[in-house]
Amino acid sequence: MKKQLIILGIETSCDETAASVVRGVGDKVEVLSNVVSSQIEIHKKYGGVVPEVAAREHVLNILPVVNEALAKAGIKSPLPSLGELGTGSLLKGAKKIDAIAVTVGPGLVTSLLVGVETAKTLAYAWGSPVVAVNHIEGHIYANWLRPISEIFNFQFSISKRIQNTKYKIQDKIKFPAIILTVSGGHTMLVLMSGHGKYRVLGETRDDAAGEAFDKAAQLLGLGYPGGPAVAAEAVKARGKKLKDISLPRPMINSGDYDFSFSGLKTALWYAIQRDKIWKKRISGYAYEFEQAAVEVLVSKIVKAARDFNCQTIMLSGGVAANLELRNQLAQAVKNRLDGAKLIIPEFKYCTDNAAMIAAAGYFRAKRKDFTPWQKLKTEPNKEFI
To answer: Does residue 98 sit in the same domain as residue 244?
Structure first.
């Protein structure tokens, strides 16, 4: 009988205070609770994340969020409130937690500190082992969370254009797998030959895809966060003729697996500078920008999957929630990668969350890859591998 492990995950790398409890058995991970306290509304007025503000919010929210995650998971005697600290009740409630997984980097150092110090304190109080998790690895392991979007058999709404596409549900992820991780801070292609076995094939040479979407939204006056804003505006132009609106597809034919989105953002800026009526055609520019970014991303992942004969294609990161990217990648896998399976996390597991950190922590805990709490530290510029 396979041993089960229950993992508490903590994530505070940027502006989301998150905690989750998962139960892992074999290669399957079940989410028992997933709590996220978002700061989007706070940072929206600044047009981006303010590190000092984010850190203060983490300090206020971390214990209530962890407490709620434990309670929802049915863990007895959850954490005390701030006013109850020092009463000794921290020693209770940890008997069902086998390990604590926490994001140590990359991310904002002041934000990471809150999660890391919380994990160290709980590890000391509970006598629980700690797993240090790289944020990128966490995004990758979002694909192991159940249900995994029914392994893309489209039992949930994606788009009418591909809603009838059928993919078989595979119970076990097959290696080698290729993962496209796209977020506000990262864009990379990773070859995964097994648990903990990674090779970075390519990454962005400048702006990440999510960062480029944020900048495009700012140029077009669409607000923050940029990805959802650009996508919502682009829908309005779909199926329409976009006269004189054309943007480049950076590095689409470069022959390697690297990306570059800085030039795409600059091309958008020059285009609207030349267009005296661009404000009347914002949806057209949003559509063209989204198409340019998505086409490059899909082209690179298909090339990598072919070159390395990958059995599984996975998507992860905040930009993985983009419907057009999901649609075009699904079609590309169906039409151009015979026999490969596509796995995409549920929307709630694409953006920063602690369930993905706990999942990554589970597979490391299985290998007994622990870090003594005394040596646990933030690594804001931590490389993936």
So the answer is: no
